[in-house]
Amino acid sequence: MDFYIGTDKDQLDISAIHQYISTTSYWGKGRTMEDLQKTLDHCLCFGMYLRSGTQIGFARVLTDYVVFAYLMDLFVFDEYRGNGLGKELIGYIIGHPLLKNVKTMALKTKDAHALYERFGFQTIGDSELWMYKDNVVYS
Question: How many independent structural domains does the chain possess?
Answer without folding.
Answer: 1
